[in-house]
Amino acid sequence: MTTATQPRGRARTADQPVATRSGRLRRATRWWPALLLVGLLTVPFSALPLPGLLDGPIGGPGNLQLLALCLLFGGLATGYDLLLGRTGLLSFGHALYFAAGTYVTNTVMLEAGLPLAVSALLGMVSGAALSALLGAVSLRVSGIGFSMVTLAFAQAASILVQRDPGGVTGGEEGRAAPVDKLPAPLVGIEHTANLYWIALAYLVVVLAVVRWAVRSPLGRVWEGIKENERRVEVLGLRPYGFKLAAFVLAGTLAALGGIVYLLLTGGATPQTTTSDFTLSLLVMVVLGGSGTRWGPMVGGILYTWADHRLGDLSGSGAVAGLPSVVRVPLSQPLFLLGALFVAVIYLLPGGVARLPARLRAARTPRAAADREEVLPS
Predict the structure, then answer these.
(1) Distance in angstroms (rounded) separating the CA atoms of residues 85 and 222
(2) How confident is residue 213, by pLDDT bands cut at 50, 70 and 90?
(3) Which of 125, 98, 123 is nearest to 112 (CA)?
(4) How many helices (H) and strands (E) does the chain have?
């Protein structure tokens, strides 16, 4: 009896420090989002250089512009994941609602002469209304049919914008935002920090809204629809209404992001209406980790940073001096992005957000083997 219980007691004693350390680590890292937010808020005041990542001090106007775009697309990818990762809806027309926020806000300021606050409200309402209308039609079909219908709507809107009906969209050139209708603290290179904080506020709002929605009863139904829509129907629920709610919420968040994009870039451009724009969002979500809390945000930030930095690398003198067989592919930013995406897919299945879990899983067998060596045979 004694010999049978003694190793079990020793094993429990050996496991206890490991569990204690794990609990302490979880408590210590519980507040990392708040600490990260404080750090992001102070970025404009920092003169810290990040060689290889950014050019010059981190608080410089050019770097703040890039970081603001990274935060914006991190929030936009998080909102798009409400469809892809939370409800299982693959939409190829999400750029349409982003462009609606940009173009409606800009057009109302230019044509009606209304101030930014009123124009932005109309832009967000238009994005919500458009997503409700087109979502009500698109969700009548499912699977690949749904994806094709959303793509058709996005393509039609893109052609309409480029045709410039009535001269309100600016065609292929787009239209610049009216400086006289924008608040003075949002105009000029000296106020780039204010735009950065607006982009950060947008990211925080999207994360909070998505977190609230996913943890609500509505979010649990979305999860059930993604796993097995037929089972949700058997429970007496209508999946159509729940999917439409996810579609409208994601479209509204995208329209809000379009308004922030208008402030960051100073105008509305037709590139935001194309299906390529939505495909970029899809890559961001998959790169970071679809269906995870932080994955789409990380994917959006990494993709946007890589898109800009690899573009600079492709045009640098270091690449220009290479042999043509190497220089030609490296001079194409899309080639570099594609290679990076393929590498992440193969090396990190599930996205970057799954990396900590994979590291913990790799350490667990090693820790178990160490405990077995400690225990007497």
Answers:
(1) 10
(2) very high
(3) 123
(4) 16, 2
> Which residue matches tokens 């609230």?
212
Q: Which residue, among 299, 343, 51, has the nearest Cα to 335 in the 3D structure?
A: 343
List 268's β-bridge partners, or say none: 175
Mean pLDDT of 125-154: 94
364 CB neighbour count, 10 Å cutoff? 11
Tokens 């490296």 locate to: 330
> What backbone torsions phi and psi does residue 217 show, to the nearest 5 degrees?
-55, -35
| CA–CA dist 182, 45 (Å, integer) | 24
Is residue 209 within 8 Å of 202, Cβ to Cβ? Answer: no
Q: Token pair for residue 305? A: 């940073």
pTM: 0.85
The DSSP annotation for 166-190 comes to GGSS-GGG-EEPPGGGS-GGGSSGG
What local confidence, expressed as pLDDT, does residue 274 receive? 86
As a whole number of angstroms, the distance between CA 254 and CA 95 comes to: 8
- 255: amino acid identity, one letter: A
Run of H or E including 138: helix 116-138
Measured CA to CA, the distance from residue 143 to residue 39 in angstroms comes to 42
Q: What value does the mean pLDDT take over residues 321-347?
A: 71
Tokens of residue 222, six digits: 């979305």
Alpha-carbon distance of 81 to 73, in angstroms, equals: 12
Distance CA 244, CA 242 (A): 5
pLDDT on residue 167: 85
Residue 367 has pLDDT above 90, yes or no: no
Q: Which CA distances in Å does 23 have to 11, 18, 27, 126, 294?
A: 18, 9, 6, 47, 21
Secondary structure (H, E, C), 33-85: HHHHHHHHHCHHHCCCECCCCCCCECCCHHHHHHHHHHHHHHHHHHHHHHHHC
Question: What is the C-alpha to C-alpha distance for residues 86 and 221, in angstroms, rounded to an integer?
Answer: 10
Residue 140 vs residue 310, higher pLDDT = 140
With beta carbons less than 8 A apart as the criterion, state whether 101 and 124 touch.
yes
